[in-house]
Amino acid sequence: MINRFSKIALAAILWFALAFIFSCSSGSGGGGGYEEISSSGVSSSSKVGKSSSSVGGNSSNSDNNGNSSSSSVGSSSSVGGSSSNSGNNGNSSSSSVGSSSSVGGSSSSSYIPIWSAWSVTTKATCESSGVETRTNDLSQTETRSINELTWNDWVVTTRATCESVGEETRTCPGNASPAQTRLIDKVTWGAWVATTPATCEAGVEMRTCPSGGSQSRTIDPIATWGAWSVTTKATCESEGVETRTCPGNVSPAQTRPIDQLAWSAWSVTTPATCEATGVEERTCPNNPSKPQKRRIDQLAWNAWETTITPTCYSLGEETRTCPGNASPAQTISSYQLRWGNWEVVTPATCTTQGVERRTCPYDASPAELRKTPSLAGEVCK
């Protein structure tokens, strides 16, 4: 009774095991049987998507050398036995991913781990790649690299000129790497171009910079001026002129004035007096035989001075002199002073004479007296 029940139970378990293996094989999409690959006397077999069942027996893959390997993806069921791969040398290996059930033997299951999200452990920069990591619930760890970041475009921060280098900068997204700078070569000057051609005089040439600005410089003369030669002599009345030319007439002739000559100092040839004008003359260095003359004004007499004071009895005398005694002194007689009017001092009467007096103005001379006749005629009757 018990033996019969055991057989029924074993058959049921086997049926369920086969059904489970079949369902796993159908879900994996494929292929049955073994695929043997042999190279240099070594072979391996893999069983993908098919289940094997053994009751009281073994499932194995082996080669002639006794080396064998077996892998099963899906599920396997063994009743009263084991699933193995063995060779003649007794070496075997087995791996199972999925699930298996065993009745009357050993029991094990394949577990699919649960992974965490990827997390950055080393940030990527524009100079090096980064690293991100994840772990599972079996304490296993996986890492993978993060591609380097791409630098932003170079941006000019200081313009280059023909006299100084410039600078440009680039940045890394998110400032993951420090900004980088590099120099920009100086701009090349344009060619020198003559703006004023050189002759016997220095010329001028100029060059410009594509970034702005210009420079100029002198060009050495290409010829030497001839010596100055006098074309118009200078005199004491006018300037002279001298001229020089450039060989080959590459430059127009040049002229420049010659300073007017200086007269000598005036010298007196005929002194002036109080009675006549004088003469003075000066000469010019280029023609001393033809002096220039001019008149010297006649001198003015000094004021008349009284040398003899006039009185009412005699004439006076006045004298004047010439500055520097250029002329002899002159003397003239001055007028005689006139007496004042007679004034009655004592009136005349019929019996006595009268007296009159007069004085000399501006003179200390004594006054003059005279008698007047006595009165007569009807006045005295």
Structure in words:
This protein is mainly beta. The chain has seven domains: 2-103, no CATH class; 155-184, no CATH class; 189-222, no CATH class; 229-258, no CATH class; 267-296, no CATH class; 305-334, no CATH class; 343-380, no CATH class. The chain contains one helix and 28 strands. It has one helix at residues 2-27, and strands at 35-39, 42-48, 53-55, 58-59, 70-79, 82-83, 94-103, 119-122, 130-135, 141-146, 155-158, 166-170, 180-184, 193-196, 203-208, 214-219, 229-232, 240-244, 254-258, 267-270, 278-284, 287-296, 305-308, 316-320, 330-334, 343-346, 354-358, 368-372. The strands form nine sheets. Strands 1, 2, 3, 5 and 7 form a five-stranded mixed beta sheet that branches. The longest helix is centred in the first third of the chain and has 26 residues, at 2-27. The termini are far apart. The model is unreliable at 26-108 (pLDDT under 50).
Topology of helices and strands:
Elements: H1 2-27, E1 35-39, E2 42-48, E3 53-55, E4 58-59, E5 70-79, E6 82-83, E7 94-103, E8 119-122, E9 130-135, E10 141-146, E11 155-158, E12 166-170, E13 180-184, E14 193-196, E15 203-208, E16 214-219, E17 229-232, E18 240-244, E19 254-258, E20 267-270, E21 278-284, E22 287-296, E23 305-308, E24 316-320, E25 330-334, E26 343-346, E27 354-358, E28 368-372
Parallel strand pairs: 2-5, 3-5, 4-6, 5-7
Antiparallel strand pairs: 1-2, 8-9, 9-10, 11-12, 12-13, 14-15, 15-16, 17-18, 18-19, 20-21, 21-22, 23-24, 24-25, 26-27, 27-28
